[in-house]
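Quick question: who can interpret this fold?

. . .
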Amino acid sequence: MHGHWKAVGAALLALTLLMAGAGVTNAAEVVIRLGSEEPFKTPPGIAAQYGLEFLAQELPKRTGGKVEVKLFPGAVLGNERALVKALTVGGVDATVVSSSNAAPLVKEAGFLAAAYLFESYAQAERALITDPRLFTRLQQLVKEKKQGFELVGLALTGTRNLYNRVKPVKSPDDLKGMKMRVMANPTEFKVWSTLGTLPTNIPAPEIYTSLQTGVVDAAESSLPAIVTGKYYEVAPHVVLTHHQYNVHMYFLGDRTLAKVPADLQKVVLDTFREAGAVQLKAAIKLADEKLAELKSKPGVTVTEVDTKAFASKLRDVQDEVAKELGVQDLLKLIRELR
C-alpha cells in the first residue's frame, strides 16, 4: 500500500512538472508594457484605443504567443511626457504620444505642431502612412537622439479645433487677448501667440478645471477629446479651425525590441506600423461621429470658419519653425504631398 501511494505521488509530481513545463512553453517570451494617457471606454471614444487594442490582439497571434502587449491606458503610469521619460529608463516598454509631448526629447518632432501643415485627411494619410519618406526621416531623427527608444509608428488623433468659454469665434481677430491653454512645445506657443492669444501650458488632466475656473479662456483638442473630456460643458463655443492634424507617435524601447527573437522583430515592427494606420482610419470615423454629437448638445455652438484666414497668418511660422529645427526637408515633403 505504501508503495502504491509512493507511485501515485511520483505520478502527481511528474504531472505537476509537466504542466509547469507546458506553462513555461506557452508563456510569452516578451511582454510589452504599453502606457498611454488616452482614456479607454466602451465603445472607444478616442482613436488611439483602436490602435492600441489592435496591437494587444494581433501581436500574440502573429508571433505564436511569444510576444504579448499589456495596455495601461488612462495615464495610470503617468501623462505623456512622463511616459516618454519612463521609456528612456525602461519604466515602460512602449507608448504612444503626441508629437508635442515627444518634442522635449526629440525636438524635431515639435515641428509637426506647426499649424496647417496638412490640408486634408487624404494628405495626412499619404504623409504618415502611404508614403514612407516622412516616417523614415523621423525614425532616423529619433535614432540619432540615442534616447533608448525608436519610432515604430505614426498616426492621428484627428484634427485639433478651438473651443472657448467666452464667445463664438469667426475670425483670427476674435482670438485677441484670450488666455489659451497649449501643450508644452515652443511651436505651440509661437502659433497661438501669432494668432493673438496669450498661451500658457497646462497639463491635459487640468484642462477642464482650468476652463471652469477661468484660469484659461480657451483650449484646443481633437473633436473626440472634446467630447470624451466633456470640455464643451465649460467651454461651449467650439470652432472648427482644423488647425492641426494631430500626429501621434508610437515609440518602442530599444531594450525591449532586443528581447524579441530575431525572426520576429520585423513582425513586431510591422504590426506597430499597422496599428498607426488602424488608428488613423478610426480618427476619421470618430471625427464625423463626435462632430454630430457636439452639434446635438444643448447650449453648444459649433462654428465653421474660413480656415484660409487662419492659415495665411501662419505660413511664415511653418518656415520659421522648420528652419529653427533644421527640418526644411520635412516641410518641403509635406507640401509636395498636398
Observations:
- Confidence is low (pLDDT under 50) at residues 4-25.
